[in-house]
Amino acid sequence: MLSKPLQSLLKKLPHSPGVYKMKDEDGRILYIGKAKDLSKRVRSYFQDQKKLTVRTQKLLEKVADLEWVEVSSDLEALFLETNFIKEFRPKYNVLMKDDKNFVYIKITKNEDFPRIEVVRRVEKDGARYFGPKTAAHTVKKTLALLQKLFNYRSCDLGIEWKNGKAEVIRKTMAYPCLDYHIKRCAGPCISEISPEEYKKSITQIERFLEGDTKSIEDSLKVQMETQVENKEFEKAAKTRDKLQALQSLFHEQVVTSPDHQNADILGFVLENGKAYFNLFMLRDGKLCGQENFIAEAAGCEAGDEPGAAEVVEAFLTQYYEKATAFPREILLPLELEEPDFFETWLSNQADHRVRLVFPKRGKKHALASLAEKNARSFQKQHKARWEHMQPSDEEALLELAEHLELSKVPKRMEAYDISHLGGSDTVASMVVFENGKPKKSDYRKFHLRSIVDGEIDDFKSMSEILARRLRYLKSAAKGFEFRKAAKRHLPGIARLFKEWRGADEVDGVLDEYTLALKNNKPIGLVRLVKGKEKSYLLKSLYISPKVRAQGLGSGLLRYAIQKLKAKRVYVSCIEKMRDFYLRFGFEEVKQFPEEFLNDLKEVLFAYNPSKTYDASFQSKPDLIVIDGGKGQLGAALKSRDFYGLEIPMIGLAKREEDVFVPGKSFPLLIPKDSPALYLLQRIRNEAHRFAITFQKDTRAKSMFK
Q1: pTM
Q2: Packing angle, helices 74-88 and 305-320, rounded to 10
């Protein structure tokens, strides 16, 4: 049975293209989708749920709210959907993993002697990129072979060609380097090769990376014959060696396409909420590359045919958005609902026509089957590696729960560390481990706001960082409820004002109040006065002293802001309330909107609710690890208790690896060879590494300001 608010929203859906967001009761985004007709698409979820997959049924059980954005075309909807998915990473969308670990081969174009590098992002710098690739070690191995064959430079010297001679303008190392002496570099830094000759080798490398081996072989054969005619036998021998090396490399590739066209061939399998992909890249009929990917596909299982099309669509948008080269054809294992739409999008990305093919018989079908077979092989290999590692991680988590007397195994652990250099450029890190493994997509960095440059206060820093992280979580205070004020609550509101100010006169109108109730009696209130364009002024916030320190103040205020769907909230407060509003997420401002100018006090704050969403921050940790002893732990606990949260928290001191827990003066006795202690050390060390790296980057940037 749908709730009345949800029924009302479904009736208001427009018949236009757009993107929709499905949310749970806490406002977390569960799923993001696109539609040609928002009304038809979204309403279809709720009409005949028996035909839906188990995954979609589970999704709908949690949906409590809807949002949508209208756009002018189907393509705009796809672009917006892709951007939203990258930003919010909803649980029930198919999400490509390891996107931060993709690498590209970069060939510079703005230099007399271009460089070839392995990079992790594509920039608009005029260079040419090949990728994305998932196996960095394979890329480096390929480049090592190419350097041996074509003698390109691997240094970062700045070299210009002037008056027929090389001039080194950026000296980052001694030159000529070892590569030149062992015949891995042609020596452009000492004028051993001209830009024209050097760029011929770069052009051949580009053709190689494109998969165009035939033209390279033909070129090398012509070059070798010319050298023989000119009696340059040593050069001819070197050219022959290059030719043989290339031929042996590509003769190992036995997969060919029937029509010698450029094509990508996709195969995938579903298993336990994950999709395992294999992508063959055929160029000029030869297999020139193979990549494997994993995607999170919550609820998808083997044989889930209705969900399989969505998995393929997600791969197309998320992979080819990052791709730097496009085939003429993409062979897919199943038909899509809107193939023309995706062909248009892919063609726009590629700047040439890209066809989607769904082969059901013949040689192309055999290639598609081979891709699926390799996807299944990849899934088995990945599962075998995971099962090999799992017992130790599981043992460590179980043992850790036992040592810390936790009510459940800490599947999600977060660790925090502070880093600075003599009090300057203070930063902090947050790292996340799930099931004993790093989850790097959830890592976060912080610049400290409450610490002035030159100040050293790790306790204050830790308190600020935990406050900024934990304020997004729902209070665990029990026995209370929040709701809009009604007439029956007026006596209770008057009692609170008398308790607070000594007078029982209620300010403003009843509609401006939201209450915290216990046993249906008001024990706290917040008053928000509406201004222009969904802006509000916070006029009153009061919690009865008997129930304070349970996170009720921040919880009540957050509930009221969400209920009103406020876009901006202002408050003018006395100095002693500064820390409260800073912890909540307010930022100091110098001026107020005109309609609120009559309510100015000592400090002016503004709050933007739209800035608070963060997928990592919305996830509640099972355990928080603080890098430090009792002092740092105590500072972190104050922030936790401010929000009324019940999250286990420990401190890990570096010197003796002592584990401190709240309420105990002495550290826990955990054996030094314990898997549980090793796990704590790993997450603490990762937090330290992440903080140090960020601090160095911050310091480097500040030096060039």
Answers
A1: 0.48
A2: 90
